[in-house]
């Protein structure tokens, strides 16, 4: 018959568990009455470690308090989503809070790992965000590049600093706003990237025997791809590669040029790449380890 959905308590019968009662042996002394001791303070609740921006519930998972958003939805099961805003729990309208709590505990390890991953990602983005001002530092070809506002220069000038840090003198006044400085530096970096990519493409195209197949080289601003190659001979390379060290840039260049011979990632493709770059696997690690600043 229709009714409420059975709960985990129903499966156990829902009754009380009674402990056996024993009378004391005849002649045994009566137990002394228990004296009330000092009241123990209730343990303090752990601080909230992660809280959703629209938090309306809390749960303690693995010793951490989590503030999460509970959404009621037309669905058949409880779902969990961990995003930039935090943990969101979506549950059917007929599911009680007790069952939601049980589901949270069963997924506690996964939830905590995903929240930690999100926090680490936000920390990396915050560390990579550039404070556009005189003295700001960003990576250039795998090394620090320090920005210097130099209105007397009237142009961009790259020099080697006394402490080994490269310095880019930007021909802008000291009171130039952040947007103006960012646009000037980004334009210079893109110009440097195009000139370098043309040089590296010419070198590796000759080594691979694809000089005639390389028709066009374009800069890309893609958010998720370092490069691409099409069958018409167009190669696109992300200008943000200019932040990484040259061995890593060369890996991406050679990788895309290898596609002009093998438009796939089969064994033959990797053999083409290995022939000109035996250590390509080591170089590829720089794409993961290199720091790319956030310009927005």
List the helices and strands and how they pair.
Layout: H1 8-11, E1 48-51, E2 57-61, E3 64-73, E4 79-83, E5 86-92, H2 97-106, H3 108-128, E6 137-140, E7 143-149, E8 156-160, E9 166-170, H4 178-208, E10 216-220, E11 227-229, E12 234-238, H5 246-258, H6 267-276, H7 280-289
Parallel strand pairs: 1-3, 3-5, 7-9, 10-12
Antiparallel strand pairs: 2-3, 4-5, 6-7, 8-9, 11-12
Helix pairs in contact: 4-5, 5-7
Q: What is the average of the pLDDT values?
A: 83
Query: CATH homologous superfamily name of the largest domain?
Result: Metalloproteases ("zincins"), catalytic domain
How many domains, as an integer? 2
> Which descriptor suits the 3D outline?
extended
Give a structural overview.
The protein is α/β, with parallel strands linked by helices. It is built from seven helices and twelve strands. The strands form three sheets. Strands 1, 2, 3, 4 and 5 form a five-stranded mixed sheet that branches. Strands 6-7-9-8 form a four-stranded mixed sheet, with helices on one face.
What keywords describe this structure?
single chain, 296 residues, 2 domains, alpha/beta, 7 helices, 5-stranded mixed sheet, 4-stranded mixed sheet, disordered N terminus, 33% helix, Zincin-like, 12 strands, 22% strand
